[in-house]
Amino acid sequence: MAFKIIWTKQAAKGYDKIINYLQENWSEKEIINFIGETDRFFEILIQHSEILQKTDKKKNVHRGPINSLTIFTYRVKPINKHIELISIRGSRQKPLKRYPPF
């Protein structure tokens, strides 16, 4: 059964930050490619919620790259059939010391 993706404020902010960076430094083609790539990843994620590696510290939290430049962190809530996007960031950005409060 497919999961529903829920965006946190932090994930939406990270996604917007990447889009803004692409708008300032790259062409429309790269923006379209990035959006298409993330959309394809979401299509796979809703069917296969365990696709990225589990973290050791938090239960049901997965993190990993969707490409060489973008890292996703999400939590699987199997009872509700939700995937909560915790953060989306460029791989060159500093990682968070810890996850945001839940």
Tell me the total number of β-strands. 5
CATH superfamily: RelE-like
Distance between the termini: 25 Å
* The CATH architecture: 2-Layer Sandwich
Strand content: 25-35%
What does the main sheet amount to? 5 strands, mixed
Secondary-structure element pattern, one letter each: EHHEEEE
Task: State the strand order across the main sheet.
Answer: 1-5-4-3-2
Radius of gyration (Å): 14 Å
**Can you tell me the number of structural domains?**
1
What is the overall shape?
globular
Topology-level CATH name: YaeB-like fold
The CATH class turns out to be Alpha Beta
Helix/strand class: alpha+beta
Tally of helical segments: 2
Query: Unreliable stretches, pLDDT < 50, 5 or more residues?
Result: none
What proportion of the residues is helical, as a percent range?
25-40%
Give the mean pLDDT. 89
Word description of this protein:
The structure is a single chain. This protein is an alpha+beta fold. Strands 1-5-4-3-2 form a 5-stranded mixed β-sheet. The protein has one domain: YaeB-like fold, CATH 3.30.2310.20. Helix content is 36%, strand content 27%. It is globular, with a radius of gyration of 14 Å. The longest helix has 20 residues. The protein contains 2 helices and 5 strands.
